Input
Amino acid sequence: MSKRVLIISSSIRPNSNSELLANAFANGARESGNEVELVSLKEKTIGFCKGCLACQKLGHCVINDDANEITEKLLNAEVVVWATPIYYYEMSGQMKTMIDRANSLYPRDYQFRDVYLLTTAAEDEEYVDEGVCKGLQGWIDCFEKAQFAGKVFAGGYDSPKSIENSDKLKKSYEMGKAIR
Output
C-alpha cells in the first residue's frame, strides 16, 4: 500500500548537499510505489510566526504567504521528511521558521505518523546533528500519533555537490525505498 510522502528541503543553496539527500530519499520512496512530493523552501516566502495563536481557531495562519500551502501539505502527508543543512549545530533558520508556522496542525486531524530527518554539515563528528535531532523531536512530541522514524546524517561536506559520491546518498535512497 503506497503512502503520501512529503519531503521538505530547507536549504537555499543551489545544488546543496541536503537537497541531494532529499532527492535520493524521494527516488527510493517513489521506486517503492509511494506518492512523493518534494517541496523546496528555496524560493518560498515564509514569515516569522507572530505567536498570536489565531491559527488554533482558524485552522490556518493569519499571515498570507507560502507557509499556509506547505502546512496543508504537511496535514495530508502520511510521511514527513525534513532535509536541512546544519548551521551552528542546529537546523537551518528556514526549517525552524516553517516548523513554527505549521502551528495550525496541532488541533487538526494530521495524517503523518513517521517523520524522518536528513542532514548535512561541514563537520563530521558524531554529535554534530544532536541539536537538530532534539529540535525536531520537540516538534514531533507535540503530535501524539507521530514518531521519529529515522535519520541520515552526512558530515564532512561543505561545498555544493560534494556529497555526490558518498554512501550517504545510497543510505538516504534505501531509507526512502523502505517506506511501504
Observations:
- Residues 26 and 87 are 23 Å apart (CA to CA).
- Helices lie at 17-31, 55-58, 66-76, 93-101, 130-140, 167-177.
- The chain has six helices and five strands.
